Amino acid sequence: MYRFWTVTALRFVALFFAMAVTIAIYFYPGGNIHNPDQPGYSLTHNFLSDLGGFHSHSGMVNFYSAFFFNQAMFLFIAVGIGFVFVPRLFKADPVNYKLSIVGSTFFLIGTMCFAGVGLTPHDLHRSTHVFLAVNAFRFLVPGSLAYLIVLLRSPVDNKYALVTLVYVIATSSYVVYQLVSASPMDSQAQMVEAATIQKVIAFISVATIFSLSFAFASQLTRLELR
C-alpha cells in the first residue's frame, strides 16, 4: 500500500498529465484571450487552463480537449493522498517526521486546489478557477521547502534534494511573479510572457513529483516497506 501511494500514484499522475495535455493540445479548436481567430493551440499564446474550458476562445465547443485536461488535473488529488502516506517513511527521525507531516499537509491542500481546477472550467467558474489555480502554487512552496529539508536530513541521495531545491526556487519566484506582474488581459505581450512562464513551472512541477517518487522508493527499500 505504501509503495502504491508514495511511488506508483505519483509516477502515474505525472506521466498521465504529460500524455493528457499533449492530447488536449492536439484537439484544442483554437483562439486565445486576445485573438479568437488563432488556429489551434499555441504554447506561447495559450494558458494550460484554456485546454479545460467548456468552449475554446474561438467560441467552438472544446469537449475532447477539456475531457483529457480536466481528468489530468483532477487526478492530482491522488498525489495529495500519496503524500499523506509519506511521513511514515521518515518516522525514525522525529524532526523529519514532523517536517514531513507539515510538508504533506501543504501538498495535500495544494494538490486539492489543482484537482479543483479540473472541476471548475475557466469559462464557467472563472473566479473559483483563478483562486484555485493561483493558490495551488502558494501552498506548494512551504510544502516543497519542508520536504527539501527532510531530504537533506535523510539518507536519500542528494540528487533528489537538488531537484526539489530547483522547484522551491522556481515556484517561489513564480508566486512573486503572479503578485507583481500585470494582467495577461492588458496586452498580448504580457499574455505571451505569463503563458510561457506557466508552461515552464508546470513542467518543473510534474518533473519534481516524478523525481520525488524515486526518492520515496529508495526510502521504502531502505525500510523494507511495501
Could you outline the blueprint of secondary structure elements for this entry?
Layout: H1 2-27, H2 63-74, H3 76-85, H4 94-119, H5 126-153, H6 158-180, H7 188-223
Helix pairs in contact: 1-2, 1-3, 1-7, 2-4, 3-4, 4-5, 5-6, 6-7
How would you characterize the overall build of this protein?
With 226 residues, the chain is mainly alpha-helical. The protein has one domain (2-223). It is built from seven helices and no strands. Helix 1 packs antiparallel against helix 3 (76-85) and helix 6 packs antiparallel against helix 7. The N and C termini lie close together (6 Å). The mean pLDDT is 95.
Give the number of DSSP strands. 0
Spans of at least 5 consecutive residues whose pLDDT stays below 50 are: none
Total number of helices? 7
- Please tell me the overall pLDDT: 95
Structural class: mainly alpha
Q: Name the shape in a single word.
A: elongated
Radius of gyration: 18 Å
Helix and strand element order: HHHHHHH
Number of domains: 1
N/C terminus separation: 6 Å
Oligomer: single chain
Helical fraction equals: over 70%
Strand content: under 5%
- Largest β-sheet summary: none
